[in-house]
Amino acid sequence: MSNNSPAGAAFEKPPLTPELCQAIVVRNTPKPKNFKKPEQALGELGVVDAEQTKFHKKDIRDDLKRIRYKIDTNNIKSGAAVSVSDCSASVQNNAT
Amino acid sequence: MRILLAASAMLACASAADFKLGPMLKPRKGAPATTERLTPHRTTETEPPLIALDIVVAGMPPGETALKDRANWSVSATAATVTHPIALNEVQWKPGVARVTLFFPASELTGFEPENAHWVATFNTPPSQSVTWDPTMKKGPFAAAKSKDDADLYLFGSFLAGVSTKPLFVIDAKGNWMWTRGSWDLGINSAISTNAGAQTPVDRSRIDPDSITAAFSVQRILRWHVPGIEGFDLNLQPLAGQFSRKTAASDIVGAAQVKLVPKPWFGPVRWVAVYPSAGYEGGHNLNQPTTLFKQAVNLSGWNIISRAVVGITGEYYWLSKSPTADDTYRFTIDASYQSRVLFTPEPFVTVADIKGQAVNTVTLDRHPRPEAEAHIAWNFSKLMGLQIQYKYGSLPPLFQFVDHQATVGLTFKAKHSQ
Question: Which of A5, A71, B315, B393 could serve as a FRET partner for B400 with CA atoms 20 to 30 Å apart?
């Protein structure tokens, strides 16, 4: 059956682009408004200690779940010294 | 004017020198530049299927035009020992996410999946830089640990034999298992130690354990959608047992603790975080020693263990200018206070001065047992740091009281630069 008609078009998982991964990483930090550049450390966005890191990883996992991706929180790089870019790369590499 | 031109040229050279291609990320389905977006969208067969290779970059490229020129890139995929050169459709430079993305038609790949190939991408503008990506190797059940603290499974065993001493066995082992069930994280932690601090000569060989601890723990994070609050961190320890030969103490205790996790305040460099918590500990004491600290004691009323625990932790963080794993904070203060309200009598050990000698005295009662700790760490340079630690109060099972104890430490760490 063809998917050419709008009614038959498939609603797929969105491609996990760098922009989408970065948006997920940033919006799940305690202070997303502090974001300025991808090289910035997550500590500057409020992921300052182990407790905030735990919540950040869990929120990223739940956010990915909403768009039908799965990720093991152990594979997400997060923490005060981790850059937004590195965290978002770990999401892109490990979400399936 | 010449100075300005020279300065601009120097700046451009410095930027170019700083430009580095980082790791390549997992190949993914891509869409042309104009259609890549953040939200799910309907796809139709009219869109040409593309594959995208994202490369992490650091710094500014020497020239955006050169970077986006397909002719300056060579890409290949190796699958089943056959290397396939890949013709690129488009190169995108995305400074907002620090990535370069290489697009090519999926039709370039015949007979293999992109995620099963070894990828090499080279940016040929001098100095030429290459990045690679390999399919994730299947992880075995174990990976190397750096130390005992880092290890989930640890076993150390030694046997010492010599003149004038009986053989001495030392066993130090721990085992931690963690797994996830839905939203719950479950874990088992256990440790056993035999003769860990023993000194020769010994007059008998024994392998009875000096200390054993074991606990089953359950953890869950609960979101609370209130402004300024992240949620609750729930920790349950339905069953935990411990035994210590040194203090002749052994018990089985279950515990439940809930911690409120607000978002940190201030920032972006200096932060304050406060975490209040409350919980309950209940169980049974398994041993009533008749002597403690070489004195006869009467602990016959020490049976059921039932305590409410309330506490608060406050933290102040001052981040380093460019935080790294080794140098995250310039200055930190963390202070915690918790009080155990006892519903049944438990031992309390204090040190009394009797005839000029410090003597441990043991009583059995129900008065609250506060415990406070504070740590200050100040890394005033990359080479030097100051640590101050403060302790007060007592902790189970024996509640040995520590009266206002402060430790000050100075660290100097450096290595030869050549």
Answer: B315
